[in-house]
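Thread: quick sanity check before group meeting

JM: Hey all, I'm pulling together slides for Thursday and realized we never actually wrote out the predicted structure for the chain we discussed last week. Dropping the sequence here so it's in one place. If anyone has concerns about the input, flag it before I start.
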Amino acid sequence: MEKLDTNTIEAKLLQLPDWDYFDDALHSEFEFENFKDCFSAMSRIAFECEALGHHPNWSNVYNVLKISITTHDAGGVTEKDFKLAKAIDFIVEPED
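JM (edit): ok, ran it. Output follows.
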């Protein structure tokens, strides 16, 4: 996969309002009602990651899930990262 340029990334992010781009990665944070709901979402995301063969950097503290996605082999963001971000958005419905 080829690393995308900043203009392309910013244009694609218009379709993913819960995601930001910095440090050569896509970043998002999702808040859930409780730990159980957060962990459940992480489990569903993990299955999708395995299916795509692409894995995020993530952390969880109680009901908050922080996710960072980049394609290490390409040295930045690729189409693969956007595909995973869209899949995560489909799985997770963040609370406002």
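AS: nice. The CA atoms of residues 7 and 13 lie 10 Å apart. The longest strand covers residues 25-31.
JM: adding both to the slides.
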